[in-house]
Amino acid sequence: MATYELTVNGQKRSVTADPGTPLLWVLRDDLKMTGTKYGCGIAACGACTVHVAGVATRSCVVPVSLIGDRPIVTIEAISQDPVGRAVQDAWVSQDVVQCGYCQSGQIMSAVALLQSNRKPTDKNIEESMGGNICRCGTYVRIREAIKLAALRLA
Amino acid sequence: MSRSRMAVGLGLLLLIVSVGAFATSAQQSPDRTASRRADGLAAWQQVHSVLIHPRCINCHTAVDYPQQGDARRRHFANVVRGPDGSGVPGLQCATCHQESNANSTGIPGSHNWHLAPLSMAWQDRNDQPLSSAAICRAITDRRKNHDMDGPALLKHNAEDKLVGWAWEPGRDIHGMPRTLPPLSRTEFAEATRHWVEAGMPCPKM
Amino acid sequence: MRQPRPVSRRTFLAVSAAAGGLLVSLYLDRPLRAQQVPAQNPKVYPPDAFIHITPDGKIVIQVNRLEFGQGVQTALPMLLADEMDADWSQVVAELAPANDIYRDPVRGIQMVGGSGSIATSFQQYRELGARTRAMLVAAAADRWKVAPDQCRTEASVVRGPAGQSARYAELAADAARIPVPATVQLKQPADFRLVGKSVRRLDSRAKCDGTQKFGLDLDLPGMQVALVAHPPVFGARPHTVDALAARGISGVVDVFEIPTVSGGTAVAVVADKFWTAKQARDQLKIDWDLSTVERADSAQLWATYKQLARTPGNVAVTRGDARAIEGFAAGDRLVAEYEFPFLAHSPMEPLNTTVRFDGDRAEAWAGSQFQTIDQAAVAQVLGLTPEQVTFHTEMAGGGFGRRAVTDSHIQREAAEIAKRGRGTPVKLIWTREDDIQGGYYRPMFLHRVEVGVGRDGLPAAWRHVIVGQSLLAGTPFAVMIKNGVDETAVEGVSDTHYAIPSFHLTVHHPKVNVPVLWWRSVGNTHTAFVMETLIDELAARASIDPIAYRRRLLQPDAKKLRAALDLMEEKSAPWRRRLPRNHAVGIACHESFGTAVACAVDVSIESKRPRIHRATVAIDAGLVVNPLTIESQCQGGLAFGVSQLMANGAITLKDGRVEQRNFDAYTPPYIVDAPVAVDVHIVPSAEKPTGCGEPPTPVISPAVVNALTRLTGKRYRTLPLVTV
Q: Percent of chain C, pLDDT > 90?
């Protein structure tokens, strides 16, 4: 057990956890932030995606001991970012979600893409979203929503 | 025999030997060249055995993805090379790979995890390792290897952090320790040094 | 106008005007009690169990079945709100807890499945809305001393003939005292304001901002987490369990054995949080006794199935002369064998259930497809009656059939664990590995088909043997097995709409020690592939265009299929005529669950895999409640169907053990695998609504494979597509 001082969504949070605990489970179980989801535990599906120091990060495989003082942003606060808000609004406009379980991760990945590239091509979208699984198959509308968000951010 | 005569004799002997050695290296007699090349190729074979080990070759691909595991399968989750070998926004190497191994989750990590550039590919586009000769040529081609000469290559092999990961590769997702290259890092560095000092010979074929 | 006849007051549930709502909902304000099913008028569903109008005007509608992405939590409220003339912007949908009042009106139990939600609750939800409206109008009419038919309603307001107006929220308490009318008048479709329109989902925003809670997200004071180490071979039990290291981990509460539904024994670990439980479970040293259970092996099963397929099985359909096929010369006979592997559903939310046992009662939370069955199972394990178990329906992260388990195995495991910790809520979580390895797969199937081709190029004789496990056997639905035929294994062939004069279908149902279950579209997952690839092959043999061939072969009265085929042909013609080089079209059409779907795909081969550039889908599902839902289910159903084509798209067993563990080895479609663009076209219809959750799934794999055959010349009869 060790104590970690994390910066989560702009706030300092202190947690005591086993060093090997993935950030995902620190967020969900210790900080009660359940917006970030558990889908596979091996970084294959992207449901656990958060941003760490501005980099999309699969929190199910990153132990809390390796975070350090890098700031963490989760789905719960991404609307405070204009890109985050545009993506969420586009997701709602296009009626993207079905069961919705994967969508926190989809949105965090899409936001990372648009923060880096305001005019993504189809190829850019496919590559950046290429590692997020949606069993409900909302991929067609995800593509549309990203393009809509890009248009609105232009 | 008097001591002074012995000293002169010894000195003369040493002189003859060193002159003889000097004469040999300066003239590069065919036997000597061949022997140096043979030594160099033997050293290269050792170096090569490490390069084609999965811990190294998995990131020296000719395609737009890395491989993973001893089975050298395409890396899962459609991760791609991206413009600079570190992935694409949303799916960068750093999305999962941190500065050190995460043994609790089976994800390897080291400083600046990324793919070697395409110019440093050691495989073909069907994910098959190139021949030893082809890899050797690629490694010694300064247009492809970021302008590294022999000493730079040696430094890379002996000291680079990401290269060093191969000898501390951590455990995989199922808790199994990853297999190590056939030589220790020290042996690898030594073999590299021998090869460099032999003039970095490459096999003909 | 004739006064509506009131329903007996005995069937009218308690009202509490003090609560300020239309009627007190069964669960909102007090603990759930079992309600007697009204003996008279069982078809009159009491509005107070379904609608609650809050003082500030929110219309809270209970959805009688699980939402797991299919859109029912928007579509059913649309029906009700439209008839009620409610202000849609004030509608809130909730997932009803377990209670018999929420039973499916046709199937008779609370459930979701078989793509039947709209079909079975269409009338019910409309009547609920109409009844509620009638009661609100009656209350207003009373107040204003006018006749009800002088009043109009719109957007949660009643307007009187002389300019009077009252909001539903103001009228709710009075309306609660009005007897529930026995008969009710429904709108003409032309008067629908919501039904038939594209209406966005009610749960969208919450699912985009992290606030939507799923079962896995539940957090209760004092809650513990449980993981279970399941036997590596179904039904086995441990010889020895060494839990010393596991117990030594800080935060571990207990380690103990529990029975499993398949007759074996598993080992439960209870801890303070997930990661603790996971580490502890990893530290368990279990020596499993595999000696008493059958060790299913895929290679052995294929060998057995191939032998069985060469012998006739139980007769499912026989039409014409069963031996007619033998009269065809070899050159006029087509023989094909097809292989389909076990498939896992793998919904994105790993399965979970939370139970708290308090001795004389219990509470449970789960994303359940069979709430009252699961409630009864929990009760049984805890030694309670179902009425003593409050069972909450949680929003579910996908289902695809995986949650429709009649043995309630997850809930039973959770109850077994909760039994040991009285007063403590325990959340049982199945990890992704548990899910992939845990069984309840779409069974393996083998088909052997012999077709005698007539002079006209059409199939004149058809002899078909199917080999695969029955998924109804051993369940309460086993009574539906007739003549040794489990209809779920043969549907899609047995009820084919192709006119084949001599048609003989038999089936073998081997018993295999692998639990099996329905996978989105069930039998159609394999039967449609066989039918639609064979039909395409026959069309190619006869040098007839695949769409024209289907038109020729379909029964004249296959109305929905013909309509879907026509619409698909029309909408895809522009791009089918201008295919780029190295692209090919693939066609497939199939009717299932009363809905017909026709599909054209544009496919090329990229990096040795099929690349689906586009799919045009036409669907005849009768009257459509929400076109946006139909579109999403078609797009989603196609992407889900691509699961069958993935290179790593098979669950295989070796010596009893499932070989795959997680998404690295059993890989669902990612964005690059799914169709890039899917345009959906709905056949206009005023017929009764049929379903759309499953019908799109069967067509995608044969359509893609039909295109691939055009590109490569190969026939693909084994799924998944390991190589192209």
A: 93
Domain that holds residue A35: 2-73
Which residues have a Cβ under 8 Å from the Cβ of C283 and sit 6 or more positions away?
A: C245, C246, C248, C249
CATH number of the domain residue A84 falls in: 1.10.150.120
Q: C9-208 and C216-292+351-429: same fold?
A: yes
> Which CATH architecture does the domain made up of C216-292+351-429 adopt?
2-Layer Sandwich (3.30)
Q: Which fold has domain C9-208?
A: Aldehyde Oxidoreductase; domain 4 (3.30.365)
- What are the pLDDT digits (tens) for C336-391? 999 999 999 999 999 999 999 999 999 999 999 999 999 999 999 999 999 999 99
Q: What integer is the mean pLDDT of B163-184?
A: 95
Average pLDDT over residues C614-643: 98
The single residue listed with the structure tokens 């050298």 is: B72
Other CB atoms within a 10 A radius of the CB of residue C302 amount to 16
- Whether C664 has its CB under 8 Å from any CB of chain B: the answer is yes
Over the stretch A83-142, which tens digit does the pLDDT of each residue have? Answer: 999 999 999 999 999 999 999 999 999 999 999 999 999 999 999 999 999 999 999 999
* Domain residue ranges in chain B: 34-197
> Whole-prediction pTM value?
0.93
> Which chain B residue's Cα is nearest to C648?
B76
- Asked whether this complex has an ipTM greater than 0.90, the answer is yes
Sort out which chain B residues have CB atoms less than 8 A from C436's CB and list them: none
Residues in A touching B75 (Cβ below 8 Å):
none
Of C200, C395, C662, the CB nearest to A95: C200
Nearest Cα neighbor of B76 from C668, C209, C295 is C668
Q: Domain ends where: A73, A99, A114? A: A73
Range C311-343+441-712: architecture per CATH: 2-Layer Sandwich (3.30)
Determine contact, residues C382/C418, Cβ cutoff 8 Å. Answer: yes
Residue A69 C-alpha, separation from nearest chain C C-alpha, in angstroms: 22
Q: How far apart are CA B98 and CA B109, in angstroms?
A: 5
Q: List chain B residues with CB under 8 Å of A55.
A: 92, 94-95
The stretches of B127-180 forming alpha helices (DSSP H) are 132-140, 150-159, 161-164
Work out the end-to-end distance of chain B between its first and last CA atoms, rounded to an integer number of angstroms. 58
Domain tally for chain A? 2
For chains A and B, CB pairs below 8 A equal 88
Q: Look at residue C95 and give its three-state secondary structure.
A: strand
Compare all CA atoms of chain A with the CA of C224 and give the residue at the minimum distance. A29
> Do both A66 and A82 map to the same domain?
no
Best A31, A85, A94, A135 residue to mutate vs chain C (most C CBs within 10 Å): A135
The whole-angstrom separation of Cα C43 and Cα C38 is: 9
Q: 10 Å Cβ neighbour count for B64?
A: 14
Do A130 and B91 count as a contact with CB atoms less than 8 A apart?
yes
For tokens 């359509």, the residue is C703
Per-domain residue ranges of chain C: 9-208, 216-292+351-429, 311-343+441-712
Pair (A89, A111) in one structural domain: yes
Taking residues C191-206, report their average pLDDT.
98
Which of C68, C273, C349 has its CB closest to that of A25? C273
Q: Distance, in angstroms, between C622 CA and closest chain B CA? A: 39
pLDDT of C11 reads: 26
Integer-rounded Cα radius of gyration of chain B: 22
Of A63, A110, A129, the CB nearest to B105: A63
Which residues of A make CB contacts under 8 Å with B?
A: 19-22, 41-46, 49, 55-58, 60-63, 66, 109-110, 112-113, 115-117, 124, 127-131
Q: Which of A17, A45, A73 is the last residue of a domain?
A: A73
pLDDT, average across residues A56-81: 98
Asked whether residue A90 falls in the same domain as residue A26, the answer is no
Choose the closest CB to C207 out of A47, A100, A142: A100
For residues C562 and C702, give the distance between their C-alpha atoms in angstroms, rounded to a whole number. Answer: 18
